[in-house]
Protein: NCBP2 antisense 2 (head to head)
Organism: Chrysemys picta bellii
Amino acid sequence: MVLRRLLFTLLNNPRLIEKLSESRPIRVAAQVTASALTRAQLGGREAARRLLREGGLARLRETFLRELKDGARAQNWPRPPGNRRDGSGRGRGSQ
């Protein structure tokens, strides 16, 4: 609890934050983070363009829907009312 309060006080000190932001390790960490985020964003855009260009979006949709339906059938979904797994025989909204 004391450590938390001490950290809170230090991190709300504008002068300390300013000094930390000017330190080399913090600047390097910020550059690495910015670089990683930019590369991830560009990679995501390129993947989206490729999907649109190659017609993969329709294939992705079909595959997703097929897997969803197969999973639903495997779970016997949708279940008729009053047919619960726990054997209580109570459907939705029953009390």
